[in-house]
Structure formats: C-alpha cells, structure tokens
Write a structure and sequence with these properties.
nine-stranded mixed sheet, binds zinc ion, 26% strand, 17 strands, alpha+beta
C-alpha cells in the first residue's frame, strides 16, 4: 500500500529545498501545504521566535476515523551543513549526493515516511486514531525545536520519532550528555627573561589531561575533550588555556561520576602547580532516555512489526535526538530507523526500499493504534 515511487519522488523534492537550522521557512511552507491537502489542520508554534529562526515547529492535526488516543509522528525539518543546493543522484534503489553536500536524509527520510503514511491512511480510508504530526526545527543545533515545542498544541502523548539510521531497529535508549568547558589560568611572564615568575597554563592543563580517563569509559559511558586553545606567543609563558569537551552515559550516576573525575583531575593539577587556578563548568545538554520493551508504545511497535512481517529489535543509540527531550517532557516516544546512512557527511546515502520498510511498519503502528493491543 506504501507507494515506493511516490515516496521517492517526495523525498527527492524535499531534499532539494534548503533547510539549514533556523532556515526551515520554505520547507515548512511546503509541508504545511502537503498536510493541508491531506485534510490536516496545520499550525505553527512560537518556537521560531524563541530561537530566532524563520519558522516555528509545524503541528498538523489529522482527524481520526475512530475514537482512540492520538498518535504522535515526529521528524525534524532542519539539516546540517554543507546542506544547501543538494543535488541528489539516483542509482537504482540508492539515493546519494553529488559529493558536495549532505543528502539531508537526516531527517527528510523521516519527514517523507510520515507524509506517505498519512497519505495512504487517508486515500485508503484505513481506520486510524487522530494523528498529530510534529515537524520540528533546529534539532541539529541542540534539539531546540523540541525544547520549545508548545505542548498545548499537541494532543498526542505517545508515538514515534523518525530520526535514526538502521531499518529494523527501534531505539529506546539514548545517553544523557553534559558539555564541559574549562578555563585553566596560570601566570604570564617573559619566557626568556623571567620564566621563574610564570606559571604555564598549558603545562597545568597537560598535567590534568594526561591522567584523565577519556574515550570509552565503560559500556554505558564515553568522554571526550574535543577542543583546546590557549597561549599568546612562543616567548610568553601562557596564562590561559580553554578546553571544551563532553561526557555521555546511559546511566546518570556514571555520568555524574565521570564529570566529577574530570573536574578532580583539573583540581589536582592546579594543586600541584601553585599560582594556577581552574574554572570547570558542566552543563546538561540533554537527559538520557530509556523506554522499557514492555511500555505501551513498544507493545504497539512490536505488534505492528510482527503483523507486517518485518521484525524489529530495540536498541540503544549513542547520541541524542528530539526523542530525549520529548520523553522528558511527558511523552512516551521511541525512535524508528528510516534508512538514512553515513549521515552528517557528504557521502550520505539511503535505500528507497529501506524507507518503504520503515513506512510499512509505521502504517501498521497507525492501524493498530486505532485499536491498541492493551
Ligand atoms: Zn536527525
């Protein structure tokens, strides 16, 4: 019932509309038209004003044919750079780019799948609950659209986010993340005339970092220092080094422990170098999510996958997405793979048949949600 050619055509159309974060105005207009054609009532929230972007989140209410709890279908409209002027190349089942931009399958594959499923529901007159389609803005720059989503405009509290790669997987767990920013201060002095008066911030930072556990900490936890800069000239003892990094974990206690470890490495190093000091900041980027396999949304997804003969496995992912935020804000959502591959690179590609597979599972989720297996 999913029409592969129509799905492909819509996807190709969407990837050729530029939509970098904060610049989702044109694609939002296009999707509002598409959704209205399908009989949905479309509105925008004020998230665009909050993030200084062209548009807010798009919320489309598709009326149900049965009286059942509304279902949420969510994908994000923005793409990463280089993502302007995308020229998709079709090679049989595969769609890739010409190598100069990302494809934008992250997350226009999700958007196209949602649209195709709603279209099939409407044209075939399939029984379905009210559907709230939410197309968010600014996912790629800190999940800002989901953070600012106006909950008063969304009836559904359960559903699917379409924003991960492998088809056949539904991501139910994702780590929480902390961003880390450190400033190590030493004392400047002429490196040749009076080195005794200086305290090298570079040396203090090196001392701290050399003893720090980084990379893969355990099965649940990772940490990285990704940027370092400081110093003024080769003949000046450096008085300041700035370091930025992150820590992630599926387990909040382990996350806190890793952040504390990183903090204490800097504190110990400054204690070993009199005259130096450190300012260490850790901020919450997003919180972890963990949906149980027995949660109602997972029972729905599992039943749908069985029904259409496309078995699905629940898994954990390494990054954060709108689902992390929505689960914190009172929704119960899991993240379904769409087929996007090698995302955030100019080698990004996908298979149309993977999008079709994800759409078929989704269609069954919608139908089963009309009569949930509780
Ligand atoms: Zn994405």
């Amino acid at each position: 019932m999913i029409q592969p050619d129509r799905l492909r055509a819509h996807f190709l159309e969407l990837v050729q509309i530029d939509s970098l974060s904060r610049k989702e105005g044109r694609i939002a207009e296009k999707l509002a038209r598409d959704m209205r054609e399908l009989g949905a009532a479309v509105e925008f929230d004020a998230a665009g004003t909050a993030v200084d972007g062209e548009t807010g989140n798009l919320i489309a209410h598709v009326p149900g044919t049965v009286d059942a709890p509304a279902l949420l279908l969510c994908a994000h409209m923005d793409t990463v750079t280089p993502g302007e002027g995308v020229r998709p190349v079709v090679e049989g089942d595969v769609i890739r780019t010409d190598g100069t931009t990302v494809l934008g399958g992250d997350d226009k594959s999700g958007v196209a799948i949602v649209c195709e499923c709603v279209r099939v529901c409407r044209e075939r007159g399939l029984p379905h609950p009210p559907i709230d389609v939410v197309f968010t803005i600014c996912e790629e720059i800190g999940l800002l659209g989901a953070r600012h989503l106006d909950l008063g405009l969304v009836r559904a509290r359960r559903g699917l986010v379409f924003d991960s790669d492998a088809v056949g997987f539904v991501f139910t767990r994702a780590p929480g993340s902390r961003s880390i920013s450190v400033v190590v201060t030493g004392r400047a002095a002429h490196a040749g005339m009076a080195p005794e008066r200086g305290v090298s911030a570079i040396q203090v930072a090196a001392d701290a970092i050399s003893g720090m556990r980084l990379g893969r900490i355990d099965a649940e936890t990772t940490a990285n220092l990704g940027r370092i800069e400081g110093g003024r000239a080769t003949n000046i003892i450096p008085d300041e080094v700035r370091i930025r990094g992150e820590a992630r974990s599926h387990d909040l206690q382990r996350l806190d422990a890793q952040v504390e470890h990183m903090r204490s490495c800097f504190a110990a190093a400054t204690a070993r170098h009199p005259g130096s000091s450190v300012r260490f900041e850790a901020n919450v980027e997003y919180e972890a999510m963990a949906i149980d396999d027995s949660a109602p949304i997972m029972r729905l997804v599992t039943a749908a996958a069985e029904r259409c003969g496309r078995p699905i496995t629940s898994a954990g992912m390494g990054g954060g997405c709108d689902a992390n935020i929505l689960n914190r804000r009172g929704f119960e959502v899991v993240n379904l793979g769409t087929g996007m591959r090698d995302i955030h690179t100019t080698a990004e590609w996908l298979r149309v048949s993977d999008m079709v597979a994800a759409a078929e599972v989704t269609l069954d989720v919608i139908e089963l949600a009309a009569d949930p297996p509780d």
